[in-house]
Design brief:
It is built from eleven helices and twelve strands. The protein is an alpha/beta fold. The strands form three sheets. It has an eight-stranded mixed β-sheet with strand order 9-5-3-2-1-10-11-12, with helices on both faces.
Length: 327
């Protein structure tokens, strides 16, 4: 019995393709999708398996380049995004740039995940396009915390977790003072001002989210309706872990402006083919952190990870500047 191989398998099995060949094939797919949508497309794809894949300020420079390229040539823009999140300020700035450049706004296509700060970027879009595999995440900010471990001096913790931890500790110790000996070693890991920092980060994220929704996915909604959605996305009415998925059904139930492309939709098939080819690129070169792409240009950010002697922590050895390549 013959079994047809999957699309991803076929892509991976292509015989030693050059970077230029890979770029050209992905760019051709973007070109086809661009014709279907009758508007330009920029992809913003992070290698989520890489420890330095978070959204950061250097991403803005690349987006400025592409937005400037299409500004004045089109009234609308599509962004394909895959990101675990990162710096909220990056998301805010990209939204502002897109709104300034495209009078009819922009849409975001999510093939798989757009979490945390990437979800914030989605909130500022005029519409989000999702499929069976798409998911957003809570907008809970992440706080860098000192661990005291020289092999891993810092870690990233959910701001909501920090606030909830201190509240739970206070409540339980007030009921049973003997528990202070249990909580004390854990509390020592946090700086005295950390709880205030976490609270301020949560409030700032909520204010940003409200502003983005009012100009984006909830344009025309009442303040009360927007506040309800912000409360859900910020974790106040969604008491789950930071990585909890917010799928299409949930987004629709929140009354956000979402469009669904089903498994058999030709546009979704094109999106998945592009997405699989981007993931194949990361598998062939794990040092690539992010891929920015249009139908005519590819820009890749790379960070090489090397094991330091007598340490288990992986550190960035070298960060190469983004290098544009054209077919």
């Amino acid at each position: 019995m013959l079994t047809e191989n999957s699309l991803y398998f076929k892509i991976i099995q292509e015989h030693k393709p050059s970077v230029e060949d890979l770029n050209k094939k992905r760019q051709n797919i973007l070109s086809e999708l661009q014709k279907m949508l009758n508007a330009p497309i920029i992809s913003y794809i992070a290698n989520i398996m890489h420890p330095f894949s978070a959204m950061q300020q250097s991403d803005v420079d690349v987006m400025i380049n592409f937005i400037q390229q299409f500004s004045g040539r089109s009234k609308k823009m599509y962004i394909i995004i895959e990101s675990p999140g990162g710096d909220i300020n990056v998301a805010i700035k990209i939204v502002k740039m897109l709104r300034a450049a495209f009078p009819e706004g922009f849409s975001v296509i999510v093939p798989n995940i757009a979490k945390s700060a990437a979800t914030m970027l989605v909130l500022g879009a005029d519409e989000v396009i999702m499929g069976p595999s798409s998911e957003l995440g809570p907008i809970d900010p992440q706080i860098i915390v000192l661990t005291g471990n020289p092999q891993q001096p810092t870690t990233i913790i959910s701001a909501r977790f920090i606030v909830n931890f201190f509240k739970r500790m206070k409540d339980e110790v007030s009921i049973n003072p003997n528990l202070i000996s249990v909580y004390y070693p854990l509390a020592q890991q946090f700086r005295p001002d950390l709880i205030m920092m976490a609270e301020e980060a949560i409030e700032m994220a909520k204010l940003y989210a409200k502003d983005l929704l009012k100009q984006g996915l909830m344009k025309g909604a009442t303040d009360r309706e927007v506040d309800e959605v912000v409360g859900y996305l910020s974790g106040e009415r969604h008491p789950t872990l930071h990585d909890s998925p917010i799928t299409y059904d949930m987004v629709r139930s929140l009354r956000l402006n979402v469009i669904y492309w089903g498994q058999d939709d030709l546009k979704w098939i094109k999106v998945l083919e592009y997405y699989f080819r981007a993931k194949a690129l990361f598998q062939l070169n794990p040092n690539i952190v992010k891929l920015f792409e249009t139908p005519s240009e590819s820009i890749m950010q790379q960070v090489q990870i090397m094991q330091m002697p007598q340490q288990t922590q992986q550190s960035p050895q070298q960060s190469s500047p983004a290098t544009p390549t054209k077919p």
